[in-house]
Amino acid sequence: MEQVIHTVLEVGLEKPVKILQITDVHLTQTDPRDSAEQQAHMDKRREVFRRESGYVPHTPNEYFEEAFALAEELGAFPVVTGDVMDVYCLGNRDEFQRIAAGKDFLFTPGSHEFAEFCRAPVPGHQERYARTRPEVEAAFPQFNFTFDSRIIGGVNVITLDNSRDWFPEEVLTGLKAEAEKGLPMILFMHDPLTDHGLLRIREPHPLTLESEEVYRISDEVLAFIDSCPLVKATFAGHWHGEALHHTPAGVPVYITPGLFKGICRLIEIR
Ligand SMILES: [Fe+2]
């Protein structure tokens, strides 16, 4: 690993808990079964990430394996916050399955998990997403893509899906149910809570525009996170660089660089 960012959260635990956040792996593995167009696209994308990483010595695949070995060595529970696959193709699917096999971790998706190509939404985008999403979920039955939680040493570790720039209703009902447990909650998601798409500061792309009802529920999730005193911090990826922001109520929004750069984040909760 080129860098492990160390973050300490004080929530009043008797014994500290460690989590390793892994995000934005951007695997570009292809397979002869993938279309020639997808294979050529992955060849180009591989170079994009090599350049963006400053030509780090290892491949995203190698860093992904390394990160799980590091988590084990440190006694940290791994949480993966999306964009593991740069696109959904058979090469990437099989590689993600191979590396994930037999490992215990939480996963929440990014938008790339459901894309066939990395480009701006084109007509038919919604229909393609509706077709791809169940297929990707079926390939990884060990994960709950929309909402999941795990209590680790008195901390409620929660993953929320906002891979489409809004939170689905299951996230709202899930969060409310988890809050009933009364434990400190640490939230993991792909898009940072301060992302302009999520906050609707940026005009949504007309092809991805959802109904007002969808956004109303998503806004309610944002308001819930900001008003629930049990929510101690949130962790995201998506931006590929490191940043720390805060919600209007002061909840920390930690943004972790892409693992393709050889960077992950160790979170120590005390
Ligand atoms: Fe990404």
Question: Which value, in Å, is the CA radius of gyration?
Answer: 18 Å
Q: What's the number of structural domains?
A: 1
The CATH class is identified as Alpha Beta
Shape: globular
The helix content is 25-40%
Strand order across the largest sheet: 5-6-7-8-10-9
Low-confidence parts, pLDDT < 50 over ≥5 residues? none
Number of H/I helices: 7
CATH architecture classification name: 2-Layer Sandwich
Q: What string gives the helices and strands in order? A: EEHHEHEHEEHEHHEEEE
The hetero compounds bound to this protein are: fe (ii) ion
How many strands, which pairing sense, and closed or not: the largest β-sheet? 6 strands, mixed
Question: Care to count the β-strands?
Answer: 11
CATH structural fold name: Transcription Regulator spoIIAA
Structural class, from helix and strand content? alpha/beta
What is the CA-CA span between the terminal residues?
24 Å
Average pLDDT for all residues: 95
Q: Can you give me a brief rundown of this structure?
A:
It contains seven helices and eleven strands. With 270 residues, it is an alpha/beta fold.
Defining traits:
alpha/beta, Transcription Regulator spoIIAA, globular, 270 residues, six-stranded mixed β-sheet, 7 helices
